[in-house]
Amino acid sequence: MTSRIQPCPTESGRALPSSFYRRADVIRIARELLGKFIVTGGIGRKTVGMIVETEAYVGVTDRACHAFGGRRTIRNEAMYAAGGIAYVYLCYGLHALLNVVTHRRGAPYAVLIRAVEPIGGLALMRRRRGAQVPDRRLTAGPGSLTQALGIGVRHNGVNLAGPEVRIEDRGVRISPSGIAARPRIGVNYAGADARRPWRFYLLGNPWVSQR
DNA sequence: ATGTCGATTTGCT
DNA sequence: GCAAATCGACATA
Known about the structure:
It is a single chain. By secondary structure, the chain is of the alpha+beta class. It has one domain (14-194): 3-methyladenine DNA Glycosylase, Chain A (Roll). The chain has four helices and nine strands. A hairpin with a 6-residue loop joins strand 5 (95-102) and strand 6 (109-120). The radius of gyration is 16 Å and the shape is globular. The structure holds a DNA duplex.
């Protein structure tokens, strides 16, 4: 029995512990989620994607955050739970968007997953997305990756170390110089907060969303 | 390459 | 009623 030296993205890894999510610095967590893996589905229906693009939503003072000013609704209730669960909501009435809830209970911080690189279960992803969709657009964009991974609003509130949606560390290490920090997408209504560089992505990765 | 538009749930006025 | 953490189709250039 030999052990591998290089990390292999097609093997299973360790689910991130709740301590990863429950830290106060959501910006740091957004950066550290790059290169982690989202795994969905059971035996025979497994799909895997490596996170390549994220955005931080920074609590009650962030005008772009659903919890700005302490807003608390049925929809965004999951943001107020302790870190380590999913906040999945319906955007424009159509697209399920996946967020990672962070920080402590009562502190509504979250990281939006904007794009993943397809790693496993490609055939199932193509079936879910439609045969005419090119691989380049399979999981590029927050509404696209959830469709490819089979994530919907039914996953709102699920534990991210659990079987439905699991985020794993598979040993991929990202150097800070490989990460771009830019303004977030689609939040122009948020005034000065729209310009803050809280969108992070892997430089040169083909699955980063375009637009 | 850039622009407009429709699909359609949720929350705020 | 209207805008929203989007996407893809279609139009025009």
